[in-house]
Every structure is written in C-alpha cells, then in structure tokens.
Amino acid sequence: MPQLASHSTPPIVARSVSKTFRVPEERTHTLKETALHPLRRTRHESFSALKDISFEVHRGEFFGIAGRNGSGKSTLLKCLAGIYGVDHGKIWMEGRLSTFIELGVGFNQDLAARDNVVLNGIMMGLTPREARRRVDEVIDFAELREFEELKLKNYSSGMHVRLAFSVAIQVDADILLVDEVLAVGDAAFQQKCFDVFHRMRDEQRTIVFVTHDMGSLNRFCHRALLLERGETVHLGEPHEVADRYLEINFGREANAGGSGDTGEGRGGDGDARVLEAWIEDEHGQRPASLPQGQRIVLKALVRFEVEVEDPAASLYVLNEDHLAIVVASSMRTEERSGRFRAGEEVLCSFAFENVLAPGRYNPLFTLAHRGTGMDLIDRYEGAFSFVVTGPEAMGGAVDLPVEVAMSRAESGSAREIVL
Amino acid sequence: MSTETLTPETSSEPVPYEGLGRPIKGPRALNDDPRRFWHLTYNIARNEFKLKFFGSVLGYVWQVMRPLLLFGVLYVFFVLIAKVGGGGQPSEQFYGVQLLGSIILFTFFGEATSGAVRSVFDRENLVRKIQFPRMVIPLAIVLLAFFNLLLNLIVVFLFALISGVTPMLSWLELPLILTLLVVFSTGLAMLLAALFVRFRDISPIWEVVSQIVFYGSPVIIPLSKVREALLYPKPPKHETSFDRFLHEHGHLLYHIYMLNPLVTVFQQFRHAMVTHATISAGQALEGWLGLLEPVGVAVATFALGFWVFNRSAPFVAENL
C-alpha cells in the first residue's frame, strides 16, 4: 500500500456521528387521515442507521467504506455529502466536494447532455461560466461527443453512468465521494475510472469510496472502515477490513461442520454412509472462515453398512461457479485401502495448504467401490460450506504462491522476464 | 435560522484538529453563497423554460395561447352574453383589457403555486443526490412563471394599445403591483412545496382552492359589482335569507374579500394600467392605510411559507 504523508488538518473529520431515521409504522400521507385521527399520533419506529461513527480522512487519502447492504455505508456517505443531516455528532469537510451517489448525480431526463452537465456543474458549486467551459472536457471523458445534444432519456444506462461519473470528477473537487461506481460500466470504462482515481490520489485529492468489492478496496484504499448495522466493526488496513467483511458476510451462514443429511444429491448403493463432515484448521479448530496460506483439513466420518473391500474416498472442493477447484482421492495414494467390516466407522481426512482464492466453497465427498471410482457407494454434498479469506481476489481460482519478477535486461543480452 | 440547535450535547466538545472550520450543517433551505443560489435558481428555471419552448411543435405559442383562449371564452360568455362588466358604465371602459390583464396575472399565480406543489417531490433525484439549497426548487418554479408573465404582459400591452388605452404615468406602478403578486405567490409556493412532502392531498386541495381564488377575486366579476352587492345592497322585491345575510354581514364579507392580496393586485392593475375610471385598490380599502392589510397578508404568507420550508428542508431528502 502506498504510504501517505500525514498532514495536520484532515479534510474530513467525523466525530460520534449518529443518524436515526424515523420510520412511521403506518405512514399517513393524507390530511383526511390526520384530520380523522388527530389524537392518534403516528407511531414511529426508530431505525438507527449510524451509531457513533468517528473517523478522519487525510489529505490525499483513498478511504474505503465497506459493509453489507443496509449496513449504513450509503447513509454515511450521504451525511458526508450533506444530503442528510446528522442527529448527533459533527462532521467537518474542508474543500470543494463532489459526489457521485447511487449511479447518478440527478440529471433531468428531458434535457440534452450538454445542459445537464452545465446544470450539474452549477449545482456542485461552479459558476455558470466555469461550468460551460468544462462541458467539452466532460463530454469527451465520457466518450459521448456524438450524443451531446441527445436527450438523456434516450441514453443507455451505461452512457448515463459514464456521463454522471465524468461530471463528478470534472468539477475539480478536493474531496470526491463515490458510491458503488464500479458496479456498472464496461471493463474499459472501469479501467478509466481507476486511472482517474490514481491520478487524483497522486494530486493529493481525497477520495471516499463506498463499495462491497473487496478487490478494489484492497487495490485502491489506504485505509477502510467496515460498518455493520450502523456500527464501526473495523477501521484500518484494507486487507484487515476485507477479511472481517468476508467473515461477517459468510460467517453467520457458514458453520464449521455439519451432519446434515440433505437427502439431495445423495447417490450410491448405500453400502456405506458418510455420517458427518467438517473442516478443521491447523489447530484442530472448526473455524467459520479460513485465511489463505494456512493448512486446512477436511474430514468425513464414514460408517460401513456391509463389508466393503478397498473402497476409495474422494473429495471435490467446488467454488461458487460449481467448478471443482480441488479434487483428491485415496485411489491415488493407496489403491488397496483394505477391507472394512459392517458397522465399522472410518475417518477420512484430506489435508492441504489453503491456496484457494477468497470466496465460498462447497466440499463434496464420495465413496466408491474399487475400480474406476464410478461405482458409487455414497455421495455427500451440501452439508456445509466454508469461506476462504484473503487480502485480495486476483481473479484466479487458486492463489498459488507465485514468484513474480521483472528484471531489466542487460543491453545486448536476451530479455528475461521471469513470471 | 438556528444552526446550533441540532447538537447541544457536543457543542462544548473541542474541535479535534486545529484549523478546522465549522462543522457541516446538512441540507438546508438556503446556503451561504447568494450568488450560487441565484445561478442555480436561474439555470433551473431557464432549462425548464427552454424545455417548454422546444418541447412541442408550436412551442411557446401554447404558453401565450392558453391565457388568450381562456380570455376569449370568458369574454364571449361573461361579457358579451351574460353582460358581466360589459354594461357600459365608466368603470367598464376597456373591459377586455381589464379582463385579459387579470387573467395573465392570475395565470402567474396559478403557475407559481400549482407548479410548486409537486416541485420538490418531483425532483427527488436531485434532492437525494446533491447537496444544494433546497429553496432553489420552489423559487425556480416562481421564476419560470415570472418569465412567462413578462412575455404574456407584452401581449397585454399590445392588446391595450390596440384597444385605445393611452399610456399613463401610473404605468410606473407596475413593478410595485408585480412585487406584491410575487411576494404572495412565492410564500404560497414555499408553503405548498414543503407541505406536499408530508401531505399528498395538498395537490387536489390546492386545485380547488385556486379555482375559488379565481372566482373570488376581480378577474371576471368586477370589484364594482362586489361592492354593490356587499356594501350597497338594494332592497330586493322578494328578500331571501341570503339577501338578509348579505345585508347584515356585507361589510364583514367585503373586508374578508379585500384581505386577499390578489384583489389589490388585480384592481390596482386595472386602475393604474388600464383606466382610472375604475377605483384604485386604495379607494377600495378606504384609504392608503387600508392597503396595509392585504400587504400584511402577503408578507405574512411569505414569512409563514419561508418558515415552514426552512424547517422541513433538512428532512426533505429523508421524507420523500
């Protein structure tokens, strides 16, 4: 992560910020309802969207706000943007602010792109002259030159977002607040956004970035804040935040073991049954999530119903795309596993270094008769899943420890790039 | 405007860093920079104006045609057929111009107030995404209506000159008359825009109310007729209970009628702009001091509208 020079006065300071929404249980929208029941006060349910949030963002810092849907991250961004007032606490913002919130910046659908860009520049604090001067830059950045006189309602959603993002970054803001920009736009435009982020970071602009994409969080942010149910869970290095995020996200559902016979996907002749399967980390614990790089052991307890000779136990670890990332079988290591009597219980274990890419995995165990491995005794899947956490999703299915080097080739000698 | 009321318990807390200014205040009705406020209001109004202009085939013709058509219908049915105002009394001189002028002024009132009702609500995507002074929205509606008014007034003046109205020194009163109209309409615009966010049936209610105001101010029915009926009722041959009611409470009803600032606006327009044969608003109110009442109503409406909008502005984004 890039290092930052620390400055004495941070451009963004939030101190014990709390925000409560009053959500009426039964919203009375008409005067008649109010007039008929003047004494019945609408009961309001208070919904605490933010509870006692404090942080500061330094000049030139790229600050991430992460959290699940409904965790309050967008509310926090709107409070920073001054769109919502806060109930308690204070926020200081120093410098010109530009916001890009929820895939748009408030365009008028009936106006042409040009007029919208000017209007938006004025809304963000430019004088009309400045705003008009910048129109061409904005349109060019958005690559919408041919469509500048087209009404916005005739724009595709991608064009819309491109224009909105271009407007947001072109107002010369000191602070840019961005909400979920990377969810949209094609790869080329996303790359362009990232280039802009890098440039702004180099220019000591301050960027606050709301996301649930841990990859971009790791890639860009110097620090990040993780929210859950309106409370600060973690404030610190992005990779720590990413780990905690994955834990929160999957932790509740992923249990470390299971004996559930889901009934589905169960096949085979039933000469033996997998009773239970679970996962252990290197300390023999059953964790909810497993960090990359540690040794993990998947275990299955099998009970034989009849006598079976030389059965083969196999493990498939499937990722979210149902691709088998790891396949291992006892057939490889010991083809003659021995003779098991009826009623005997056997523990099968599969231990390996966790090089899986961050994400959720489903293990699948099979037990087969000697031979090709196709003659199934039992098939056990879906009983549990586990989550691998890691600093960064590079996009590969596994993260093998790869030594990467780029060395300058000596002049005249062959160019060598070791990858 | 109070800005310190939101965070009483943290106000004693020291500023965490030196060099920090004041904490941000969240969304408000106004901002600290009047120029930005004006640029915004003007540009929103201008864009809407352009949309109307270029939005349809005949464009701006419709904007002028609407009041003219209304004028045509009212003139034929009320003046020519029902003989309202067309009776040939001195105060009914240039009655067509009087009628058209009042219609144009009322059109402004209608556009400014009815347009403002849904204005904040309809601009949800702006309100929820950008921090800007919320008051800009209803004021832009009023400004747009004012653009239309100025264009329509050109038509009125052409019509007046063609009809034979001679230019008078009292034409200089026009800015004052328009100021009273704008202050009253703006107050209602702010009030209605803020209330609609909470009460959705403001919209149909206001439609009805503006109809009442249309007939309850001297647009079609000249003030002289109202005065005659309320202040100097002739004993009718067969007195009905309504006649008795008018006879007993005529002065009070007239007083209430004259409280409406639009009555002053329309009547003074007729007096100062069209013909001195009609009585001035001052005369109708028994002296210039009487003008303080409708002016007071307009200013009070403005203050109330401003207060209500200002109070609700911080929460508009959440309540939409």
Structure notes:
The complex is a heterodimer of chains A (about 425) and B (about 325). Chain A is α+β, with helices and mostly antiparallel strands and about 425 residues long. Chain A is built from nine helices and 21 strands. The radius of gyration of chain A is 28 Å and the shape is elongated. The two termini of chain A are about 20 Å apart. Chain B has about 325 residues and is mainly α. In chain B, about 65% of the residues lie in helices and about 0% in strands. Chain B contains 14 helices and no strands. The longest helix of chain B has 28 residues. At the A-B interface, strand 1, helix 1, helix 2, strand 4 and helix 3 of A face helix 1 and helix 5 of B.
Provide the fold topology:
The complex is a heterodimer of chains A (419) and B (320).
Chain A: E1 12-24, H1 31-36, E2 44-57, E3 62-67, H2 73-81, E4 88-93, E5 97-100, H3 113-123, H4 128-141, H5 157-169, E6 175-179, H6 187-202, E7 206-211, H7 214-220, E8 223-228, E9 231-236, H8 238-251, E10 257-258, E11 272-280, E12 289-291, E13 295-304, E14 308-309, E15 312-318, E16 324-329, H9 330-333, E17 339-340, E18 345-353, E19 359-368, E20 376-381, E21 386-389
Parallel strand pairs in A: 3-7, 3-8, 5-6, 6-7, 12-21
Antiparallel strand pairs in A: 1-2, 1-4, 8-9, 10-11, 11-13, 13-18, 14-17, 15-16, 15-19, 19-20, 19-21
Chain B: H1 34-55, H2 60-81, H3 95-117, H4 119-122, H5 124-127, H6 136-163, H7 174-198, H8 202-215, H9 223-230, H10 241-259, H11 261-274, H12 281-284, H13 292-312, H14 316-319
Helix pairs in contact in B: 1-6, 2-3, 3-6, 3-7, 3-8, 3-11, 6-7, 7-11, 7-13, 9-10, 11-13
